[in-house]
Write a structure and sequence with these properties.
The protein is of the alpha+beta class. Strands 1, 2, 3, 4, 5, 6, 7 and 8 form an 8-stranded mixed beta sheet that branches. A hairpin with a 2-residue loop joins strand 6 and strand 7.
């Protein structure tokens, strides 16, 4: 019996599938592979790549944290943010990475009052995940270049 998958954010439904053979999830504790018949599970999500398999087709989605639940072959993903590889604007992701790195190095002249380190770190993690997944899935190396 295949898995039924639903990925939603506060803004919209990202994906609904009913014939999923395998899901690889970036859980907070590490990567988890969910197969049909998986034990009931609930976990938080890390920032990273989720891969959904339907037969011999694989679709990658960048997940920006949240929670997921597995129960009776139904996988529900409540993501803080999520986007398909096709929706990633690589130039925008590179610019976001550069901005986050500048903020963390204290060189951002547009800030008024100081750097929110946690926000800058999360922005960096999100941009690196977008870059890595987009490059790997579009035929690149997935390794962001260092620009200084």
């Amino acid at each position: 019996m295949p898995l039924k998958l639903s990925i939603v954010t506060a803004q919209r439904t990202i994906m609904e599938r009913s014939n999923v053979s395998k899901i690889v999830v970036p859980a907070a504790e590490g990567q988890i592979t969910v197969l049909p018949g998986h034990a009931a599970l609930m976990s938080s999500l890390a920032i990273g790549e989720m891969v959904v398999y339907e037969g011999d087709q694989a679709e990658a989605i960048v997940i920006h944290g949240g929670f997921f639940q597995v129960i009776n072959n139904v996988v529900s993903v409540l993501a803080d943010g999520a986007e398909s590889v096709d929706a990633i604007d690589l130039e925008r992701a590179e610019a976001a990475r550069a901005r986050a790195e500048q903020r963390l190095q204290g060189r951002d002249t547009d800030l008024h009052g100081g750097v929110d380190v946690l926000r800058a770190q999360l922005a960096l993690q999100r941009s690196l995940a977008r870059i890595k997944v987009a490059r790997r899935r579009r035929g690149g190396t997935g390794v962001p270049t260092q620009q200084r």
